[in-house]
């Protein structure tokens, strides 16, 4: 039987009236309690109205809890947070970490979004939180549940660290193989590494592809999110087969390098044959290389890790209201051309790393599915 959460938590509204030098913290949805982002700016302020959060107490920003920005304070004897925050204590019959997981569960987040009010942003008052229903088993059972969920989160963290390690390894390998001897390589403009000047192309603009052309299914339009994920995320935009044929000049084929031209400018990803045929979005540039001159994986390495290339991309992106690079400027970027055999050695290394990452990602996905199923079981 579910209990009323308000019977187990109580508001704590003690201010830092004497303006003591207590560490200022924020609560984020990813880091939980962390040193306040604004640093020196906050340090110079009068903090007498800030709320004190003793160790073991919870705090949340009423307009950010809807995205999971809630945590209990476990780092210091006491910290202070913005006056906007709600702070509350927890009954000794309710384990803090158990409540933390509950507040992070899909059930709680959906309920927060359903009951929160506010004209601009959802705003969850503490009295609303009091009315939330929660399963509260015996304290020993709560601790067993927490122990299991903590273990799974630790495994998840280790797998994410492995993926980060492989990314670092790729950069280190690139620097080792190419950066120290870059003066010895041949150099070409990027367009000279293609068979045709139109092999470097920007996606279709509004005159060719209108908003009304987009649909929920069909031929994918690959944009910046897909490039940033290395084509691991599902496309959000689609067009009809007929429209795709009209725009076939903007197609992606196996071995093409897609480059983000806005936002994270220069982020690149390889398009491969197991992906669904599609076209590039107007925010994406396509580079179709002559593979007897440059290996696609090597170009991606240059765009990501070569300081010289990154500086050229940055310089070419300046001058606009929103930083971005166009086709003409990308074509003129000067790239290193090491012997093809060395490029292919790097390419082989990348492909082995990618195989390892795929296995780790699969294991990570399974771990996250297990975690979510347990969260549903305990808090759904």
TrEMBL record:
<protein>
    <submittedName>
        <fullName>EcoKI restriction-modification system protein HsdS</fullName>
    </submittedName>
</protein>
<dbReference type="Pfam" id="PF01420">
    <property type="entry name" value="Methylase_S"/>
</dbReference>
<dbReference type="InterPro" id="IPR052021">
    <property type="entry name" value="Type-I_RS_S_subunit"/>
</dbReference>
<feature type="domain" description="Type I restriction modification DNA specificity">
    <location>
        <begin position="201"/>
        <end position="364"/>
    </location>
</feature>
<keyword id="KW-0238">DNA-binding</keyword>
<comment type="similarity">
    <text>Belongs to the type-I restriction system S methylase family.</text>
</comment>
<dbReference type="InterPro" id="IPR044946">
    <property type="entry name" value="Restrct_endonuc_typeI_TRD_sf"/>
</dbReference>
<dbReference type="InterPro" id="IPR000055">
    <property type="entry name" value="Restrct_endonuc_typeI_TRD"/>
</dbReference>
<dbReference type="GO" id="GO:0009307">
    <property type="term" value="P:DNA restriction-modification system"/>
</dbReference>
<dbReference type="GO" id="GO:0003677">
    <property type="term" value="F:DNA binding"/>
</dbReference>
<feature type="domain" description="Type I restriction modification DNA specificity">
    <location>
        <begin position="15"/>
        <end position="161"/>
    </location>
</feature>
<keyword id="KW-0680">Restriction system</keyword>
